[in-house]
Here is the input.
Amino acid sequence: MLYTVEQVSKELNISKQAIYKQLKKEEFKQYITIEKGIKHINAEGLNYLKGIEPKDLLIKQQVEEIERLRADNKRLIVLLEQQNQIILNSQELQKKALSNTELLLLEKREELKKRNEEFNKCNSKWFNWFKLRFN
Here is the structure.
């Protein structure tokens, strides 16, 4: 963003002459842009006038980014732990369901054997009865 000398003057509460004096310095030339004959100062130049060095600003931004990334990492670790717990619970439920299914199949197999034996008993009685009757 570009600022006029007047805007910078109001922002910093210093006179325009003091700003123009700074603009004449060699180290400040990189922050100046001239549009339609009007000198503009970019945001880095404004920070320089405020006494905020670009390196300090960069370090501050990087520290904030590192802190944000650390917080993100903590949240991700918590989410991974929750996901792992859900997976473990799911596996435990699957084991229980499989065990219950196996028990149910065994019970049904026994029931089927009993019914088959009863059927064969009844069937053999009727078969013998018909055999005796018609012979």
